[in-house]
5-methyltetrahydropteroyltriglutamate--homocysteine methyltransferase
Amino acid sequence: MTTESAAAAARATVYGYPRQGPNRELKKAIEGYWKGRVTAGALRATAAELRRANWLQLAGAGIDEVPTGDFSYYDHVLDTTVMVGAIPDRHRDAVAADPLDGYFAMARGTQDVAPLEMTKWFDTNYHYLVPELGPDTVFTADSARQVAELREALALGLTARPVLVGPVTYLLLAKPAPGAPADFEPLTLLDRLLPVYAEVLADLRAAGAEWVQLDEPALVQDRTPAELSATGRAYRDLGALADRPKLLVASYFDRLGEALPVLAKAPVEGLALDFTEAAAAHLEELAAVGGLPRKRLIAGVVNGRNIWVNDLEKSLATLGTLLGLADRVDVAASCSLLHVPLDTAAERDIEPPILRWLAFARQKTAEIVTLARGLTRGTGAITAELAANRAALASRATSPITRDPAVRARAGAVTDADAHRSQPYAERVAAQRAHLRLPLLPTTTIGSFPQTGELRTARAELREGRIDRAGYEERVRAEIREVISFQERTGLDVLVHGEAERNDMVQYFAEQLTGYLATRHGWVQSYGTRYVRPPILAGDITRPEPMTVRWTAYAQSLTERPVKGMLTGPVTMLAWSFVRDDQPLGDTARQVALALREEVNDLEAAGTSVIQVDEPALRETLPLRAGDRPAYLAWATEAFRLTTGGVRPGTQIHTHMCYAEFGDIVRAIDDLDADVISLEAARSHMQVARELATHGYPREAGPGVYDIHSPRVPSAREAAELLRTGLRAIPAERLWVNPDCGLKTRGWPETRSALRNLVAAARTVRGELPAS
Ligand code: GLN
Ligand code: ZN
């Protein structure tokens, strides 16, 4: 394909860049500041230097317009809360006393004040701080940070475009403030918020911004007519301002759907759309509204949230189609590059041919620049890049890593029977009761016990070669002995080995499965100063040998009580990794499920009669649009059943999920066909128990009675009270007693007391049950 030169030169741009720096300098500076080891001045200097380096790197790579305001000390939604003056009452004094400390107090809380709630940013693994708004909220504009960062970039001689969270998305992401009516809708504050945005826009214009970007990713979700009309009003009002920069409304993570006609009609000068997710549907929608004849269109054709090289020819074809649909077409990544690691060059452990399949933020920037050049000057101007790209794509498509015939044959031969246990739940429950002989209200934990400093040291020493594998494993066994002995002394009914050998619940398995790649420096911000290194699902999956059996078997050899085997489920293995883009997600899930199924069967063969397959990510991976959910839930639940479907009726399968709001997936949870589910419930006072009951959930359940996210130890009385509440929704024959989640982030002293109290509570409440 040859693209003839477009009318205007296409510009290359991005909406945001990884904040941390090549060696996570930002994390170190912020955590140093918290510990009092780094002064506020030094922290600010580090931050300014990181911003400067990012801008210069972007500009040096050929990015025509750099973003500003995407940097953050913690979170860009929290920054927006500061920008609009929506500081919660409980934080006002701290913010007034010292803005930076007040900012961190909102993010992390202090001894006396709770932080803002944190939740996931759409369907990414980034977490933002939820704004708290009420009928009494008064907004005031504070454009200082945005203006200062714009000036920094302009001072470098760059063309810069400030990026803000848009007003509609900001309100839609908010929740009612404490004290506000529970049904309060923050969107009703729109008319109060718009003048504040108007002020910020005027300030940015005065500081030299030609364009300002307003991010509205909330518009790619299903929106009510009222929300769409509020959106139309918002952009009519902002568009009508006399003193303002040109406005670019950006959407990402999916297609705009019903919001597209609203924004196409709005008096704004540009739209940014995502052409990586649902690209074909998005193109059709764009054609259906008659294109954007008088607008600038920024086409997100380079996926900003996965790590695969772009198919440049395919992107050029999309861009070519778009040329006919807008006044001017520019090229970008689909979303901020915040969601990918910085640079593949740091990955010395990945072989060069495979490394060429990958594109992190720096490589994506180069792709965007190449595409803009190709769009402007024709493919003849990028022949070398196209040839290299074609070679990388071909090498990936034909590699034995991505296509293992044995794995494909096995996945293809899966039958419906494989994904079903041999007996329905109602029948196998008797076999399990006879076999396990547990008391009513059996007590257990979710899997991990405290990850002590000694364990982390041992792992570091193993990595650095200061101890050998045998020495390391002996330390893990010592920890297992301690954990088993503690649980026996405390009187728990179903024990766990404690997961001492695991660095992370996904990485531990990824390291042992072929087809997964690990990175050394592939850090991605999860929240605040927490960064994770998601493994890369690159190829067909096999399990060369058992991954957990010897640890579980060792633990079982130390006790008469049942020890629960612990695995991470297939959906979570995908959700917390970078996934393949060359086959449907369901196919990848099925391969992972088949590998995990071997592990489940091996655990059973080794004498494990209770096996837990954790799926904390089942709910969070739910597609953004309701119409896409049934297909997702179908493959997700099938993958779980395939993992667990091969065991005998008497083997009890548990699953575990955290995070509230299970209401909309109770049906799917039932479709997992697990025997027992443990859920997070302590903070919501057993709300999930009621939700399960309302939906007629027929299986056993353990709504958590110990909030493990807090260092607080619940008393036995408190836990008993929660159990009594649980019993009103779930009968005693089906109620389990457990914490909300794993204990790996807790210390031993509080874990000891909390579990003692939990067992005491179960005993007390058992004593209150009518004798049968
Ligand atoms: N079994 C895991 C643990 O206890 C579950 C963790 C999770 O739900 N996130 O650590
Ligand atoms: Zn959990």
In short: Residues 1-6 have pLDDT under 50 and may be disordered. The first helix runs from residue 25 to 34. The chain has two domains: 3-184+217-398, 425-451+488-503+548-767.
